[in-house]
Design a protein that fits this description.
The protein has about 325 residues and is α/β, with parallel strands linked by helices. Helices cover about 45% and strands about 20% of the residues. The strands form two sheets. Strands 1, 2, 5, 6, 7, 8, 9 and 10 form an eight-stranded mixed β-sheet that branches. The chain has a two-stranded antiparallel sheet with strand order 3-4. A hairpin with a 2-residue loop joins strand 3 and strand 4. The mean pLDDT is about 90.
Length: about 325
């Protein structure tokens, strides 16, 4: 069996995915062979491949806007207790004045990646025969590319992680190999099908959205917020398409697919990195994965069956 862990895009909501992964790997003792990530998921998969959950938690619960942006295009203010996003005109004008193609710059994130995904980690992952794959959108060639750690140099792999996270036009544009690359979520937000194509026989997919729409957006107040709403609309439908295709492929090949959605709406702007909220979301992810497991166990009447009998029942071929 080849087990895969897939983590969708979701910006700051990646902290929730970290909590879910911590429960699955530490408490359920799941050992994955393949790790696929898109956007924020691409930031996580290297640490997860090495079981460095404590280091990942420290990283995801201590970032803020300055950690990510070298030129932050956002102005965040509180209105009636809620965070409202608008454009920081001076920063955006400075970017355009310097001939850049985006509203903001995320060069600090590139430095953060080099600092936390070290060359030693890169070598250890390859030596352990774990496959780590990140998703990028090639805007020049108009297609999705999946970059495996086994096919990249260390510096190239760091570039692909950075490119996968760059939510243009708000963050930097990766220009590499005569092509322009952006957030992998624009085409493959939840790369379940790619995991199947790479031989996975059991997949745990962490999806950083609720399973059903739980709110209606407020009318946009400015062009900036309207652009966010349009992007969110498109990504929501990309996500649903990815999941539908993934489910069909899994059913067709008799692959066990476990989906972990966020039970509630965590934020309406995942490019706001709030340390306090992200610590809370990590704990929420852990508790959610635990409750989902307990709910599954209750279906098998644990008051009657032993833990070993439950595990044997779950592992029956006809249940996969």
């Amino acid at each position: 069996m080849k087990k895969a862990l897939v983590i969708s895009g979701g910006g700051s909501k990646g902290a929730f995915a970290g909590g879910v992964a911590q429960y699955l790997m530490k408490k359920e003792k799941k050992d994955y062979d393949l790790f696929l990530g898109t956007s924020t998921g691409s930031l996580m998969v290297s640490h997860l491949a090495l079981g460095k959950l404590d280091a990942l938690k420290k990283l995801y619960t201590n970032v803020n806007q300055k950690t990510i942006f070298s030129n932050n295009p956002f102005k965040i203010k509180r209105v009636a207790g809620e965070k409202v996003i608008s454009i920081r005109h001076l920063n955006t004008f400075w970017n355009f004045l310097n001939g850049r193609k985006t509203f903001g710059e995320s060069k600090n994130l590139r430095s953060l990646i080099k600092k936390n995904v070290t060359k030693e980690m890169y070598n250890e992952i390859r030596a352990n025969n774990k496959e780590v794959v990140v998703t990028v959108s090639n805007l020049t060639a108009n297609h999705i590319e999946y970059k495996s750690i086994n096919d990249c140099t260390y510096d190239d792999f760091c570039d692909w992680i950075w490119g996968s996270c760059n939510y243009v036009p708000f963050m930097s544009l990766l220009e590499k190999n005569n092509c322009q690359y952006a957030d992998g979520g624009f085409g493959s937000l939840v790369p379940i099908r790619e995991a199947i194509l790479r031989g996975a026989t059991e997949i745990d997919a962490i999806i950083l959205e609720t399973e059903v729409t739980q709110f209606n957006r407020l009318p946009a107040k400015n062009p900036f917020s309207l652009l966010f709403d349009v992007f969110d609309f498109m990504l929501t439908h990309v996500e649903r398409h990815n999941i539908t295709i993934g489910k069909l492929a899994a059913n067709n090949k008799d692959i066990k697919l476990n989906l972990y959605y966020t039970p509630t709406v965590l934020t309406t702007n995942s490019l706001v990195f709030d340390e306090v909220l992200m610590r809370k979301w990590w704990k929420s992810g852990y508790k959610y994965a635990k409750s989902k497991r307990e709910e599954l166990m209750s279906e098998f009447r644990p008051d009657v069956l032993t833990d070993q009998e439950i595990e044997e029942f779950i592992e029956k071929p006809e249940l996969k």
